[in-house]
Amino acid sequence: MRSPQPLASQADQKSRSTSKQPLKRLLAYASNYNRQIQLASLCSILNKLFDLAPPVLIGIAVDTVVKQQDSLLANYGLTSVSSQLIALAMISLVIWAFESIFEYAFARLWRNLAQTIQHDLRLDAYSHLQELELAFFEERSTGGLMSILSDDINQLERFLDVGANEVIQTLTTIIVVGGIFMAIAPEVAWWSVIPMPFILWGSIAFQGLLAPRYANVREKVSLMNGQLSNNLSGITTIKSFTTEDYEISRIEKLSDKYRQSNRRAIALSAAFVPLIRILIFIGFVATLVVGGLQVEAGTIAVGSYSVMVFITQRLLWPLTRLGETLDQYQRAMASTNRVMDLLDQPITMHPGHIDLGEQHAIDAKNLAQPLTATNGEKKERSAQIQIRGEVNFEQVSFAYPSSPAVISDLSLQIPAGQTIGIVGATGSGKSTLVKLLMRLYEINSGRITLDGMDISEIKLRDLRGCMGLVSQDVFLFHGSVWENIAYGSFDASTEAIEAAAKIAEADDFIAKLPHGYDTIVGERGQKLSGGQRQRLAIARAVLRDPPILILDEATSAVDNETELAIHRSLEKITANRTTIAIAHRLSTVRNADRIYVMEHGRLVEQGTHDQLNAMSGIYAELWRLQTGQLAS
After folding, report:
1. For the purposes of burial, counting CB atoms within 10 Å of the CB of 130, is it exposed (0-12), middle (13-18) or buried (19 or more)?
2. Domain 10-343 is classified in which CATH homologous superfamily?
3. Cα separation of 287 and 245, whole Å?
4. Cα(485)–Cα(502) distance, rounded to whole angstroms?
5. Which of 35, 134, 317, 464 has minimal CB crowding within 10 Å?
6. Which DSSP helix (H) or strand (E) runs through 398?
7. What is the SS3 assignment for 548?
8. SS3 for 371?
9. Cβ distance 36 to 109 under 8 Å?
10. 352 with 463: CB under 8 angstroms?
11. Residue 448: which residues within 8 A CB-CB, separation 6 or more?
């Protein structure tokens, strides 16, 4: 897999992508496969050379029968007709054998090359996609991106499978047959090649006309796939609102637009072959008539004339396949542009350079100890940094693209090893703080530090690796309970996974599942209740054992009994580690060491639960509201 491309501005990327043709972009990407391409191309050329030999053998056979002792082979000591024909049979056997060998070779080489490029391109595209910031995904549909990673790359693979070989063999045929014609009868050769400039011109013209039509086809299929993906994800909503007919209508319209787009492309591409056949007919008839007259005049031999007639078909008729090849080519180039445009998307987030290494929570008694080097460690970094978990927001401001500011000049301190609560009304910027801390977005101004280090200087994977996130919207992968708990801690033992489940108070309900830890949870964990999914997410965080635990509305979507169970598990896992609890339910953060209250992206109150209640401010009002103390 290739390493991510260096940082670049959006304008530079756009300039580069528009200045290149799709074929050039593909060849530039495929430069690592030059050796395989050259070997496959050589086998294609050799196969075509042996494929063009039979018409020559037919001409020699005719020459043998007509001239007998004066034939071409007689000059090599084969005086009898029978010996000449036997020699021709042996030569034919060798030619057919080599033709078959090289056909097997080029088919295997091109197909394997197509599979390899498809595999590497998909991995490179997906790897690059993972490095892009969240804003990129918010502007695009999942189905559209899936269309690029799957359908567009498959389209390219289909062309490499067959089309590349067709192009090479067609060019080989033109060069070899043209040379043979010029050697045998130059005056007839001109007539046979008359259609060639028109065929080539027509091919180029058709490419120019087809390119925008197939680009439109790829756009339409992307929109359709996006809607299909969206509908499948929201199938419960569709069923609950009985909007099946409405959604079928939407898919029908998108599918019809895709069909009509394909029809416009097909209407043009289908006209290519009939037009080419007319030109081919002219070349074939010219060779047949003019060559025959030359034989009658005694200018060329009967055997040479036979070669010309047969080889003209080998030259011209394969050109009828140019229509299909051209169709595959234009589809592949439209897909290539979409894939390369994805790879050209700039990675705007700086990767950082400080290596933190593997992190685990440390005891509270060690929080005040200075950072120390790990003795005897033979790695690139000179010291293993142990994260204590002190976080500082210093005059941080942030706004989502094309939106007003969400965070405005905010400063707050989160001491190492303490539990901090952040509360506020919906839209006050609470969850945005978490995204900024994990560098899912870059701040517009200000500074965020972790143990005194600017988080923009820390390697992204190391920064996120020292944090464990339990969010309101728990995402579980389609797989077993065991696999979902172990996600991100793939080398964890069975004992560790079960211990994490017990701490999260998930072990009891897991034991009641049909297959225990091996039970498949379904896509996004749809076979489990909200509380069960939440407890698995907590178990996953427990297993990771991070120095910093982030709870983003972790109990807002569960019932009171489940909330109580989650609170008991959180008391165990928040000990001796920095915990940031984003909460709508104030009961979640009541016992926090410090509570920050946010409003419109600003910090408006701070203190303990008792201190904030005594202020009779926003927090006190929210507390009375949630505990039913406000007068009706």
Report:
1. exposed
2. ABC transporter type 1, transmembrane domain (1.20.1560.10)
3. 63
4. 12
5. 35
6. strand 391-399
7. strand
8. coil
9. yes
10. yes
11. 391, 392, 393, 394, 396, 436, 437, 454, 455, 456
pLDDT at 26 over 50: yes
Q: CA-CA distance, 307 to 286, in Å (whole number)?
A: 15
Give the Å distances, CA to CA, from 107 to 40, 101, 174.
8, 10, 21
Measured distance CA(495)–CA(625) in Å, rounded: 44
Quick one: tokens of 503? 């701490």
| Of the ranges 325-329, 361-365, 395-399, 545-549, the best mean pLDDT one | 395-399
189: tokens are 């050769």
CATH of 417-434+464-626, one of 3.40.50.10420, 3.40.50.300, 3.40.190.10, 3.30.930.10: 3.40.50.300
To which residue do tokens 């008792």 refer? 610
Name residues whose C-beta falls within 8 Å of residue 398's C-beta, 6 or more positions apart in sequence.
Answer: 405, 406, 407, 432, 436, 441, 443, 444
Write out the two tokens for 13: 């990327």
**Tokens in use for 489?**
């801690």
Q: Are strands 578-583 and 419-424 parallel, antiparallel or unpaired?
A: parallel
Q: Can you say whether residue 331 is alpha, beta or left, with left for phi > 0 and alpha for psi between -120 and 50 degrees? A: alpha
For 193-301, where are the alpha helices, taking DSSP H only? Answer: 195-233, 235-240, 244-269, 272-296
Which range has the top average pLDDT, 409-413, 460-464, 504-508? Answer: 409-413
* Global confidence as pTM: 0.70
Tokens linked to 553: 């509305």
- The token pair that represents 299 in the structure block: 């200018």
pLDDT band per the 50, 70, 90 thresholds, residue 315: low
Strand 578-583 vs strand 548-552: parallel, antiparallel, or unpaired? Answer: parallel
Question: 355-379: string of b/e by CB count within 10 Å (b at 16+)?
Answer: bbbebebbeeeebeeeeeeeeeeee
At 536-584, the pLDDT tens digits run 888 888 888 888 988 887 666 556 666 676 677 677 777 778 999 888 7
The DSSP code sequence of 96-145 is HHHHHHHHHHHHHHHHHHHHHHHHHHHHHHHHHHHHS-HHHHHTS-HHHH
For residue range 333-351, what is the model confidence (pLDDT) as tens digits? 888 888 888 888 888 777 7
Domain map (residue ranges) of the chain: 10-343, 417-434+464-626
Angle value at C-alpha 351, between 350 and 357, nearest 5 degrees:
150
Q: Taking a C-beta distance cutoff of 8 angstroms, is the pair 36, 88 a contact?
A: no
pLDDT tens for residues 244-280? 888 888 889 999 998 998 888 888 877 777 777 777 7
C-alpha 133/C-alpha 183 separation (Å) is: 63
Residue 335 is which amino acid? S
Nearest partner of 52 among 102, 86, 90, judged by Cα: 102
d(CA 11, CA 494): 50
Give the burial class of 183: count Cβ atoms within 10 A of its Cβ; 0-12 exposed, 13-18 middle, 19 or more buried: exposed
Q: What is the Cα–Cα distance from 130 to 459, expressed in whole angstroms?
A: 15
